[in-house]
TrEMBL record:
Protein name as annotated: DUF3846 domain-containing protein
InterPro entries reported for this sequence: DUF3846 (IPR024559)
Domain DUF3846: 11-105
Organism (species): Butyricicoccus intestinisimiae
Pfam family, one: DUF3846
Domain of life: Bacteria
Length: 109
């Protein structure tokens, strides 16, 4: 049994650092934890229905390292990919979504 099945309040996400492969990371869903992971104030951008990227709101101004281009938008610094519900609450990626986005955001070789 893994951490996710033991505690349903833990959120499955993908954590993506520049020049690294995406990794599954389990979050407690607090703003403070997400700010720590993206190194500053958070912002989000929808990338697909029910899925968003959480990133540093000032990453471009802070000249953070380029990370990934998604639908023509360049993201800088660390990113977190999560799902959200119909009222905007962050929820876990499904296992299938985690695998799908890990493939989508894998480094191109």
């Amino acid at each position: 049994m893994n951490e996710f099945t033991e505690n349903p309040y833990i959120i499955r996400s993908l954590y993506i650092l520049p020049d690294e492969e995406p990794v599954v990371k389990y979050l407690n869903g607090t703003e403070a934890q997400m700010e720590e992971l993206v190194h500053g104030k958070i912002a989000s951008a929808g990338i697909e229905e029910g899925v968003c990227v959480i990133h540093n709101a000032l990453s471009e101004l802070l000249k953070m390292t380029e990370n990934r281009v998604i639908d023509g938008t360049q993201f800088y610094g660390p990113m977190i990919v999560v799902s959200f519900d119909n009222v905007g609450n962050i929820i876990s990626l499904t296992e299938d979504d985690a695998e799908y986005f890990a493939e989508q955001f894998a480094l191109k070789k």
